[in-house]
Amino acid sequence: MIKLMLIDDHAMFRSGLKKMLQDEPDFQVVDEAGDWAEGLAKLRSHEQLDVVLLDINLPARSGFDLLEVIHAEFPALRVIMLSMYSQQQYALRALRAGAHGYVAKDMEASDLIGAVRTVLNGKKYMSAAVTEMLISSLNGSTDDPSEPRKLSIREAQIFELLVRGESLTMIASRLSISVKTVSTYRSRILEKRGVTTNAELIQYAVRNNLID
């Protein structure tokens, strides 16, 4: 039996993901968590896990922070990163950080199941859509304006929340940082994306297919 754990802050998404996985007769979702601290505590409580599906954008601390701890404490554990975006920048960042796979949250069931089986066989996994974008990038389209390559991990995290329409106060609460700090990050993001307002930032994201 392949034992899995889900770490994502959206309960409804976790529920759907769990059902999708457990339709496979040899998959068992043994636990789930909604944030960084809960995820780490539950990881430490299990003697045997095979794969963890980890959201990049968690409250307080990012999935990348937890990935670093997982590598240190559970070196044999396979990690598949989840994100609401399929852009190559996020996939590359996840793989460079040591993730074994990367799947966008709008994936088909076959993508997710294929990802789990692939990483358990000791290989890296990316969906066909992400792989195609990476190949296009290598073929000369590295200056694609849709790639927010100049954003730091924290800036990319706040960028995602801003274009989803969250206020500075909501973001500050979600990430456990001050509103002033969020405002500073917002200013950097606007400057790097060449816009001046949240509305323009959302338009930028829509124009470059960074949000649905």
UniProtKB/TrEMBL annotation:
SUPFAM superfamilies: C-terminal effector domain of the bipartite response regulators, CheY-like. Residues 144-209 form the HTH luxR-type domain. GO terms for molecular function: DNA binding. It comes from the Bacteria. The modification 4-aspartylphosphate is found at D55. It holds the Pfam family Response_reg. CDD domains: LuxR_C_like, REC_NarL-like. One of its GO terms (biological process) is regulation of DNA-templated transcription. Keywords: DNA-binding, Phosphoprotein. Residues 3-120 form the Response regulatory domain. This is DNA-binding response regulator. The lineage of its organism: Bacteria, Pseudomonadati, Pseudomonadota, Betaproteobacteria, Burkholderiales.
